[in-house]
Amino acid sequence: FKMDDGVSMSSHINNLRSLIRQLAEVKAAIEDEDAKAILLNSLSSKYSNVVFTLSQIQSQSLDDMIAALLAEEKRTTEDAEGHSQQESAFYSRTRKYHRRSDKSEIECHYCKKRGHTAWDCRVRANDVLKGKVISNTTNIAMVEDPPDAEGSEDSDEYAL
């Protein structure tokens, strides 16, 4: 009696209970300790951590063990769903900032030709090297007016 891949924990437990019932009908009843051992040994390898933990607890009933296994299955399926949602959210976030590689429809604001941006424009780059184009930064000049000739109290203030 082994758990097949793709079978849910609840259907596997139902199969075990059905087997125990059939054995009880033919007067070959299975004790709780034996049923727990059969259940733990029949689980697939993805439950190996839970099997180890549950096998260390001696005073646990079969029903408590079943409840723990069902809870573990629920937790793992929720984790798997959560990971897929996080992965899709991450994909959509990174996709949002992904630059498009087809630049055939883009028009340069510098030379007005299609296929590149002003940042990548070769004409602009040549003009910058020749000194024809000033970079895009803005220069700010501060001008200081001389104090009022009449000697007013506002003479310490400067206008921009």
* Mean pLDDT reading: 78
- Tally the helices: 5
Shape descriptor: elongated
Give the total of beta strands. 0
Largest sheet: none
- H/E element string? HHHHH
Percent of residues in helices: 40-55%
In whole angstroms, the N-to-C terminal distance is 90 Å
User: How large a portion of the residues is in β-strands, by DSSP E?
Assistant: under 5%
Total domain modules? 2
Rounded to an integer in angstroms, the radius of gyration calculated over CA atoms is 38 Å
Protein name: CCHC-type domain-containing protein
Biased composition (Basic and acidic residues): 75-84
GO molecular function: nucleic acid binding; zinc ion binding
Region (Disordered): 75-95
Report on this structure.
Residues 75-84 have a biased composition (Basic and acidic residues). This is CCHC-type domain-containing protein. Residues 75-95 are annotated as: Disordered. GO terms for molecular function: nucleic acid binding; zinc ion binding. It holds the Pfam family Retrotran_gag_2. This protein is mostly helical. The protein has two domains: 9-96, no CATH class; 103-138, no CATH class. It has helices spanning 9-25, 32-42, 48-56, 62-96, 122-130. The radius of gyration is 38 Å and the shape is elongated. The relative contact order is 0.06. The mean pLDDT is 78.
Short recap of the structure:
51% of the residues lie in helices and 0% in strands.
Task: List the main descriptive attributes of the protein structure presented here.
2 domains, mainly alpha, 160 residues
